[in-house]
Design a protein that fits this description.
Blueprint: H1 13-19, H2 39-49, E1 53-56, E2 59-62, H3 67-86, E3 90-93, E4 99-102, E5 105-107, E6 111-115, E7 135-139, H4 146-159, E8 163-168, E9 173-177, E10 184-186, E11 191-193, E12 202-204, H5 205-213
Parallel strand pairs: 7-8
Antiparallel strand pairs: 1-2, 3-6, 4-5, 6-7, 8-9, 9-10, 11-12
């Protein structure tokens, strides 16, 4: 049974959307009926439609991810994997790495790092593992709202995530959270560091931003 964070079910669509973080209605599935969806529905919807859904309060909410956001995410994953080739600390997952953070709560970070200590040892193929990544990264897209991302941030840290990066391609900023409050805001002039989660990981943001924003061969 899905676990709801509220004691009463929403009475209107407006109340439902507000509870989910003011997400656009186009991202909220009405089938299964909101409040009744399960992890099996997440898996079956992906297998049937090839679309990614998160599970929140018994509701299927489509994962917001677009062309540009995917490019930013895969480049970051590339740099993280280069680091992990030299430091065998764990694995990197991409934007279809579905995880059960808490009972009834399934989220899909755009990029995630899971240390070997946390990596699920009894993982069954096709099932959603119960694991909180050490690092969760979200590449902000147009349909992500402030309230949605604030809710996600709280959930990540409640689940035990140690480090969260919110990347805003439009503003060319990265907000680094070691707790739900007081992020460090980095710009293209700064270097993104892995801290205690990924010791020694360094990525000059100007380099990452330039790679993500290229529209043609180098030198043209």
């Amino acid at each position: 049974m899905p676990v709801r964070t509220k004691t009463t079910a929403p009475q209107t669509v407006a109340e439902l959307l507000k509870r989910l973080g003011d997400v656009p209605a186009s991202r909220v599935r009405l089938v299964p009926t909101p409040g009744t969806a399960t992890e099996r529905d997440v898996i079956e919807a992906h297998d049937r439609e090839n679309r990614l859904y998160e599970l929140v309060d018994g509701v299927l909410v489509e994962k917001a991810m677009g062309f540009e956001e995917s490019r930013w995410a895969i480049l970051l994953a590339f740099h993280l994997n280069l680091y992990l080739l030299q430091h065998d600390l764990g694995v990197v997952l991409g934007s279809d790495g579905t995880m059960r953070l808490l009972p009834g709560l399934v989220r899909i970070p755009d990029v995630a790092f899971i240390s070997w200590d946390r990596y699920p040892k009894d993982l069954s193929r096709g099932e959603i593992p119960a694991v909180a990544p050490d690092l969760a990264v979200e590449i902000l897209s147009k349909s992500n709202t402030r309230r949605e991302m604030a809710r996600k941030l709280d959930e990540y840290f409640r689940a035990g995530v140690r480090l969260v990066w919110y990347v805003d391609p439009k503003a060319r900023e990265v907000r680094v959270y070691e707790s739900p409050a007081a992020p460090v805001v980095l710009t293209a002039a700064d270097v993104l560091e892995g801290g205690a989660v990924l010791p020694g990981f360094l990525l000059p943001l100007a380099e990452w931003f330039a790679q993500a924003e290229r529209t043609g061969p180098a030198g043209r």
